[in-house]
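#struct-help
A.M.: can someone run this one for me? Single chain, 76 residues.
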Amino acid sequence: MSHDTTERLVRMANQIATFFLSQPESGRIEGVANHINKFWEPRMRRELFEHIDKGGEGLMPMVIEASRTIKRPIAA
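D.P.: on it. Structure tokens below:
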């Protein structure tokens, strides 16, 4: 995965998390996970998890927490 792709995915995931900051606290994590599960194709989720597995640099804590309920695709 290229550095540019990683930066783009981090930026997109953080934008989703930032949106859900405006929602009630009780549904924020679930909202982030549901959005990524619904709208991100498996390749994007796989690349997100590759980045998280390497430490998740740049990701908001809410994205890291949501990753527990994001569907992890089978490795390519």
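A.M.: thanks! The mean pLDDT is 95.
D.P.: also worth noting: Residues 2-68 form one domain.
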